[in-house]
Amino acid sequence: MPDHSSLESPVATRRGFATRRTFAIISHPDAGKTTLTERLLLAAGAVHLAGNVRARGERRRTRSDWMEIERQRGISISSSVMTFEHAGLTFNLLDTPGHEDFSEDTYRTLTAVDSAVMVIDAAKGIESQTRKLFEVCRLRDIPIITFINKVDREGRDPFELLDEIESTLALDVCPVTWPVGMGTTFQGLFDLRNPRLFTAAAAHQGFDKQIDCTGPRDPKLADHISEAVLGDFRETAELALSAYPEFSLQSYREGHLTPVFFGSALKNYGMEEILSAIADWAPPPRLQPAEPQPVAPDAPGVAGFVFKVQANMDPNHRDRVAFFRLCSGRLTRGIKLRQSGTGKSITIHNPMFFFARERELAEEALPGDIVGIPNHGTLCVGDTLTDGEELRFTGIPNFAPEILRRVRLGDPMRAKQMRRALEDLAEEGVTQVFRPVLGAQWIVGVVGQLQLDVLEARIAEEYKIKVQFEPSPHQVARWVTADDPNLVKRFTKSNAANIAEDRDGAPVFLARNAWELDYAVREWPNVKFLETRERT
Ligand code: G4P
C-alpha cells in the first residue's frame, strides 16, 4: 500500500503544482479501461452512480465517450480529459483511445501525462496494444502503475502474469495487493506491504470489511477465508513477498519498476488502492522536453503545448477546442499568450476544465492542468504557447499516414464546405489532408481503416456532406525538406505530379509505391524524406 514518502520538492509544494496528478489509463481494447475510469471517478466521489453499472450503451452515452460512432461501435475513439478532486489533490485523467488505428492520437495524448495506469485483463495478460502503448510510455520514461483486472473471473496464475510483465516489458514488478482466490473462489484482496485483508460480507459490489493482521500466516485470516482457498493463498502470498523486489518510489518514478495491483473494476474491488497509489506515488508535473532547453514545472513563465484539437465537441455549438497542457507558470483567465512559430498573440478568454461532457470555466490553472481553449482554427496540435519566452516543446509529431485515399464528393457544388470539413478535421491531428499541387482531388491520409469510417461519418453528421473515399494512385507519403530551401523548390518542381501540400503548406512527396520512393531517395541524396514532421 502506498506510503507517504515523497520525492516532491518544497518548491513544488509552495507553487501548488505538487497537488496535480496528470495521468492516462492505457490498455488493450476490452481490458476494462472504460470501466476502471468510471469506477475511479466513483471512488473519488467525482460521480455518483447508484448501484451497478448501467447497461453498456447507456453508460457510454453518459460518460467519457462523446461521439455517435463510438456509441454505435462501442469503442472509445476520442481522447477526453476528466478533471476531478480527491484527497486534496487534482487528478487530470486523460482518456486514450484503445483502438490501434488511433495510435497517433494516443501517442500525442501520452506526451501530456506524467504517469500512466496500465490495465491488463487477468485472463489475457499482455496484449498487442498494451505492448505498443507501453513502448510509447517507455520512450518518454513515463512511470506505470499496473492494474490486473477481472479477478472476479477465472484468470491466469498471478505469478505467470507478473513474470510476463517482467519479461515482455523488461520491467521490475512489485506486487502490492494479492488476490485471495480468483473467479468463483475469489474472496478478497490482501495488502502485502501493510498486511490486511479486504473482503466483503456477501458477494456484492466492493469490499465492506478490512481485517488488519500480521501477515498471510495470521491465524485470524481463517475466520474470513475458506479453508479450500486459505492454504494456497498463504503459500502464494508468501512467495510473492519474497520473490519480488521491494517497492522503490525512485525506481518506479524512473520507469524501471511497476507496482502491481489486482482487482476488478466491474465489481469495484481495488479502486481505493489504485487511487491512493496515484495520489501517493505518481509524480507531480515533470520536466518537459523543449528547445532550447527542457521546461521545469517551477519555471516562472507560463508555457505549455497543444496535444489535441477537437472540432464540434458540442453539436449545438460548432466549436473547436484545443487541449492545452500547462507545463509551467500560472495560467489565468484573460491571459495573453504567444504562439511560437507564428509569434501571434492569443488572448485566452475562456479556458475550460473538463469533466467528461461538462465544462467549467477555468479561472486559474497550474502546471499539470489540462485546459481547453476554444478557438476558430488558430491553434493546432503541437503548438507551443508561452507568455513571451521563445521556446518550443518537442516530441509531438505528425506521423506519415499508412493509407492514402482520394476524396470524392457526392455533390460537386459543396466543394467549399468539403474543404472546410477536411481541414477542420485534419486540424484535430487524427487524419492528414493533402492538396496535390496539380489536380483538384483532395487526398486524405490515415493510419487505419477505422479512421476513414469515422471521417466519413463525421463529415456526414457534422457538415452534412456525403463523401466517398476511393483508392489513390499513391501509397506512400513523405514530408520533404533539405538544408538548402532552393533544393526543395527544385525537387518539387521536377516532381510536381507527386507533390502535395499538407494543411500547413509543407511539401509532401506522394509515391505510387516503395520503389518510387526509393528511386527519389537515390536520385535526390540531399533531400530528406521524413516519416514524421514536427510543427515549427
Ligand atoms: P475497454 O474500455 O478497455 O475497452 O473495456 P471496458 O471497460 O469497456 O470493458 C470491456 C468489457 O469487460 C465489458 O464487458 C466490461 O463490463 C467488462 N469488464 C470490465 N471490468 C471487468 C471486471 O473487473 N470483471 C469482469 N468480469 N468484467 C469486466 P462487455 O460484455 O463488453 O460489456 P458490458 O455490456 O458488460 O458493459
Descriptive terms for the model:
single chain, 536 residues, Rossmann fold, Alpha-Beta Plaits, eight-stranded antiparallel β-sheet, seven-stranded mixed β-sheet, 14 helices, 26% helix, disordered N terminus, binds guanosine-5',3'-tetraphosphate
Short description:
This protein has 536 residues and is of the alpha+beta class. It has an eight-stranded antiparallel β-sheet with strand order 28-25-27-26-30-31-29-32. It has a seven-stranded mixed β-sheet with strand order 2-3-1-4-5-11-6, sandwiched between helices. Strands 17-16-22-13-14-21 form a six-stranded antiparallel β-sheet.
Bound molecules: guanosine-5',3'-tetraphosphate
CA-atom Rg in angstroms: 25 Å
Query: Structural class of the helices, strands and pairings?
Result: alpha+beta
Largest sheet: 8 strands, antiparallel
> How many alpha or pi helices?
14
CATH fold field value of the largest domain: Rossmann fold
Approximately how much helix is present in the residues? 25-40%
Instruction: Supply the CATH architecture of the largest domain.
Output: 3-Layer(aba) Sandwich
Beta-strand content: 25-35%
Number of strands: 33
